[in-house]
Design a protein that fits this description.
Elements lengths: L2 H14 L2 H6 L2 H41 L4 H50 L5 H14 L23 H4 L1 H21 L5 H22 L4
Helix pairs in contact: 1-3, 4-5, 5-7, 7-8
Length: 220
């Protein structure tokens, strides 16, 4: 028997015991009234269940907060740590790329110096070879300081540069400037054909390289 049927039977039985009400009000009035009361009781009971469940959830959240007082702060810190790790890894990767490119650039300078040295040791130097080598050195010489940004030292990866490059930046800048000036002078000299003058200027260029290497280049 359903709820509404039980309500109807209850009302009918109750009405038989109350003849004065049966005479004044129709049966459907009492049935409707009883149904409404039943629905109200069910609504109140449902609300109580929901309220108790909500309190239980709040209690669990409070317990979790007690176990981890930092709450969202801890989660945010963890996210920040992950982001910081990714960022650090990316910066190191970029540094290694720059360091590798720096090595390649110095190899080009070194290669040009070898060609020039070989030609000047001969009886009849090839001016075209001298000029090509001088142009390469003059091209790269002004760029040297930019090849050593912070974070590209021996603590990051394998490099021929000493930590003094970054510890004594003013001294390194002075050595780089001397190399640049010598490279420009030599590039100008090879435009002529006075090999005596070319050899002399080349010796100055070599000294500028050695002066920098003695202080800022590590032994390999």
């Amino acid at each position: 028997m359903g709820t509404d049927e039980r309500v109807v039977c209850h009302v009918i039985g109750h009405q038989r015991n109350m003849p004065q009400l049966r005479e004044n009000l129709p049966l459907w009035h009492w049935v409707l009234r009883a149904i409404r009361r039943t629905a109200l009781r069910n609504l109140v009971a449902g609300a109580a269940v929901i309220l108790l469940a909500a309190c239980g959830s709040a209690g669990e959240e409070n317990d979790a907060a007690a176990a981890n007082p930092s709450g969202n702060v801890s989660s945010a810190a963890q996210d920040k740590k992950v982001q910081y790790s990714s960022s650090t890894s990316l910066e190191k990767e970029q540094a290694l790329v720059l360091m590798e490119q720096r090595k390649k650039n110095f190899k080009k300078i070194g290669g040009a110096m070898k060609v020039i040295s070989r030609e000047l040791k001969g009886q009849s130097p090839n001016l075209n070879h001298l000029r090509t080598g001088a142009a390469t050195i003059a091209q790269f010489a002004p760029q040297v300081p930019a090849w050593f940004p912070a974070g590209t030292g021996p603590d990051v990866g394998k490099t021929g540069a000493r930590a003094e490059v970054w510890q004594k930046p003013e001294g390194f800048a002075a050595k780089s400037q001397a190399f640049r000036e010598a490279a420009v002078t030599f590039n100008t000299a090879v435009q002529g054909s006075d090999f005596g003058s070319i050899r002399s200027v080349y010796a100055t260029l070599g000294k500028s390289c050695k002066g920098c290497h003695d202080v800022y280049r590590a032994e390999e």
